[in-house]
Amino acid sequence: MKKLFALGCVIALFVSCNQGPARYTQSSAEIDTVKQLLSNYDSKSYDTSMFADSSKTNYNSMKTMSPSEAMDYHKQADANYAKRGFKAEGQEYEMVVTDDGETWVNCWLEWQGTLAANGKEISVPVHLTYRFVDGKIVREYGYWDPTEIVLSLQEIAAAAKAAEEEAEQAEE
Known about the structure:
Blueprint: H1 2-17, E1 24-25, H2 29-42, E2 51-59, H3 67-78, E3 81-86, E4 92-97, E5 103-115, E6 121-133, E7 136-144, H4 147-171
Parallel strand pairs: 2-7
Antiparallel strand pairs: 1-4, 3-5, 4-5, 5-6, 6-7
């Protein structure tokens, strides 16, 4: 009887210690995929192979883009910068599995850029989150405050317009 009781305790202990798959981690294949995607962004290599064909991306709005449209968005924005990319150190990544079984990778990053027109350096905190299905990104959300960039680009445009108007007046 004692042996049966001890065996029951061992089984109960084993079952209670047996956990399912990790629901939170800071090291996973999905995190490695996101890091590669960000490295590609930094090197201006716009590879969409990490995305499912039906993937949808939203940056600071409800406007949804396909993977190729998101890459075009980055290419168009590149014209404003002499250099830009994510800071190499101090970035945070996590992967979570929700109660519904969805796999998400969240990252908190610092983006740095130098405006091409005036050399102004700008640093912006960025939050990106990616949903994965079968190793591919099916959703991407990006959130950051673009105010400093927008105001700087508006100043550059206003100065260019003023210079143009001044040149036209000088010609008259």
